[in-house]
Design brief:
With about 270 residues, the chain is of the alpha/beta class. The chain has one domain (about 1-270): Rossmann fold. The protein is about 40% helix and about 15% strand. It contains 13 helices and 8 strands. An 8-stranded mixed beta sheet has the order 3-4-2-5-1-6-7-8, with helices on both faces. Helix 1 crosses helix 12 (about 245-260). This is Cellulose biosynthesis protein BcsQ.
């Protein structure tokens, strides 16, 4: 099992959109995929319809699927600090992958981690038992440089950073680099441009210049797109909304590059 964390220190960059579409793209390769929504805003949870009474995943214990007493899903806070079993919180989506949804306890994860031992290792320890059930876990990380972000990075094999073509693009990459450097075993970093409107001169300049000035940036551009906007109204990944749109094809390319930057055994699985 490999872990991809979608992370940025800044909000509003398309992080949740990226995490959702990466999970969907990987699932199209017949991989067993879990998306874990760690963001207190619960965007991925809402987008995938897991904010109500979702269908338990096949990864869940039998007693949970049967609804036995005492088998309710544990809060995310308990899962992160090691007091709850991650797979008992997992639910299915109709898009070929599972989700570990956010709940009210996501708002208190920082406090819970601060009080726990081995803070940086907590998330890695919580995810580890899922290796029997999934080939890939995608973490939708909250936008911050906090203790939770450090734990996310410690768990990840690859950090994916969506970068809007704005003046602070270089700064956002540098901030994530600094977080990675704090880890004893830093994961690889993959940045890519998103929300690009080629009608704007500044965006065209960013597409031409940033991949040459940022070594971690892939030559992949996700356009500003009505198809991506429709994800919110239809509550589905872009592949369900507009599977042949330029945005859908771009996210498939992002996943292709991410897959190639993971370990060789992952690449061999898909080819």
């Amino acid at each position: 099992m490999k872990i991809v964390a979608v992370h940025s220190v800044k909000g509003g960059v398309g992080k949740t959109t990226t995490a959702t579409n990466l999970a969907a793209a990987a699932a199209r390769d017949d991989s067993r995929v879990l998306l874990w929504d760690l963001d207190p805003q619960a965007g991925a949870t809402w987008l995938l319809g897991a904010d109500g009474d979702p269908t338990p995943s096949s990864a869940n214990p039998k007693d949970l699927r049967k609804g036995k007493k005492g088998a309710q899903r544990p809060p995310v806070r308990e899962v992160v600090i090691g007091e709850g079993e991650a797979r008992r919180a997992v639910v299915a989506t109709e898009h070929g992958f599972d989700v570990l949804p956010a709940d009210a306890s996501n708002r208190h994860l920082e406090v819970a981690l601060a009080a726990a031992k081995r803070t940086r290792k907590r998330l890695a320890e919580a995810v580890s038992p899922l290796a029997k059930h999934y080939d890939l876990v995608v973490l939708d990380s909250p936008p911050s440089s906090s203790a939770l972000a450090a734990s996310v990075i410690r768990a990840a094999d690859l950090v994916v950073l969506p970068v809007p073509p704005a003046g602070l693009a270089l700064r956002s990459v540098e901030q994530v680099r600094m977080l990675l450097e704090e880890s004893k075993h830093p994961p690889a970093l993959l940045a890519f441009l998103t929300m690009v409107d080629r009608r704007k001169a500044e965006h065209r300049e960013a597409v031409a210049e940033l991949p040459r000035s940022i070594p971690e940036m892939a030559d992949v551009v996700v356009p500003s797109s009505v198809a991506v906007e429709r994800m919110g109204t239809q509550r589905a990944p872009v592949f369900a909304v507009a599977p042949r749109s330029p945005a859908a094809l771009a996210y498939l390319r992002v996943w292709d590059v991410a897959r190639l930057r993971l370990a060789p055994q992952v690449r061999s699985k898909y080819h």
